[in-house]
Specification:
single chain; about 170 residues; alpha+beta; four-stranded mixed β-sheet; 3 helices; about 20% helix; elongated
């Protein structure tokens, strides 16, 4: 699974260890890790896990339950003196959160999750004289997507021509 990571490169091995620890918990809860962020905020280390699930999206209760389970898994031996083998050195804040509806799509699975919904797709170069479309996502393949544009019909867009895509909020 390709998961986005936001951190300095030297921290990637630590994030791999964190993923290995939390993956069984996420699978048990039928939750997908969308992005893992580790950075310093207001002088504190923060580990932020953005998670989602297909069945109706992630709810606040899901995030709270996951936060508790993941915290326990990462803090095995809590209360003991920190050791060099701890996954995260020093204190940190754990946040388990929804990535939000307006997050950009990063992997094919993000597109699949938005199937049938309204999306905004920004392109590297024009297709049919436009570089941006707001349209209904009709199909996702290994090569790209098909969107249904009002008054133009179905347009096929290869992934390599997409610079940004996200779900649009419908009212």
């Amino acid at each position: 699974m390709k998961v986005g990571a936001v951190c300095p490169l030297f921290l990637l091995p630590m994030l791999d260890k964190i993923k290995a620890i939390i993956e069984p918990i996420l699978q048990e809860e039928q939750v997908e890790l969308v992005e893992i962020i580790f950075r310093r905020e207001a002088g504190r280390q923060v580990l932020r896990l953005l998670v989602d699930k297909d069945s109706g999206g992630i709810q606040l209760a899901d995030c709270a339950r996951l936060n508790e389970k993941i915290s326990q898994a990462l803090d095995v031996g809590a209360g003991l003196k920190p050791t060099p083998t701890d996954v995260i050195q020093g204190g940190y804040i754990l946040e388990v959160d929804s990535p939000g509806i307006d997050r950009p799509f990063k992997v094919k699975r993000d597109y699949e999750r938005a199937m049938g919904r309204l999306v905004r797709v920004t392109l590297r170069e024009k297709i049919l004289d436009k570089k941006e479309y707001i349209a209904r996502l009709k199909e996702v393949s290994d090569a790209g997507v098909k969107i249904d544009v009002k008054k133009k019909g179905i347009i096929e867009i290869p992934f390599e021509k997409i610079t940004r895509a996200r779900e649009e909020v419908e009212f």
